[in-house]
Amino acid sequence: MRMVNFFLSIFLAGIASGQSIERSNPEGMTQPTGYNHLVKAGNLMFIAGQVALDAEGGVVGEGNMTAQVRQVLENLKTVLASEGADFSNVVKINIFTTDIERFREAAEVRREYFGGHPPASTLVQIERLARPVFLVEIEAIAIAPE
């Protein structure tokens, strides 16, 4: 844990010492007002938690975990592509779900997107997400291609 804190401190010091920070909401995504889908610091990409919303803000797959996981991963794909990246650039994901067992049933969808490049991953079951209709939310950290 100390080593992680050490590296995080070095990273944050690099940002504080003048490394540029870019914030964006790529085309093909909802356009939120209170946050950005993507914050890029140097070559690190921090992708906000994605839920099962289409570009117009409509819910995809109400009550259907597999459909929601697919939409969430499509949203991640859109954000990654906005920087010329793909799922092989993702190094860490955090998954929040309201039902781990139902999420595990949708695991094949996740494999379709990550293929042979699975990232470090955390899976957490929570009581609810931002809206009761959401079953899963995934946030990611990726390294932008050079």
Describe the structure concisely for a colleague.
The protein has 146 residues and is of the alpha+beta class. The protein has four helices and six strands; from the N terminus they run αβββαβααββ. It has one domain (20-143): RutC-like (60s Ribosomal Protein L30, Chain: A), CATH 3.30.1330.
Tell me the span between the first and last alpha carbons.
30 Å
Widest sheet, order of strands: 1-2-3-6-4-5
Number of self-contained structural domains: 1
> Can you give the helix content as a percent range?
25-40%
The main pleated sheet reads as: 6 strands, mixed
CATH superfamily annotation: RutC-like
Rg to the nearest angstrom?
16 Å
Mean pLDDT: 91
- The CATH topology comes to 60s Ribosomal Protein L30, Chain: A
Secondary-structure element string: HEEEHEHHEE
Total DSSP helices: 4
Q: Could you say what the CATH architecture is? A: 2-Layer Sandwich
Percent in strands:
25-35%
Question: What is the global morphology?
Answer: globular
Structural class: alpha+beta
State the name of the first-level CATH class.
Alpha Beta
Q: What's the helix and strand layout?
A:
Blueprint: H1 2-16, E1 21-24, E2 38-41, E3 44-50, H2 65-81, E4 90-97, H3 100-105, H4 107-114, E5 120-125, E6 136-143
Parallel strand pairs: 4-5
Antiparallel strand pairs: 1-2, 2-3, 3-6, 4-6
Helix pairs in contact: 2-4
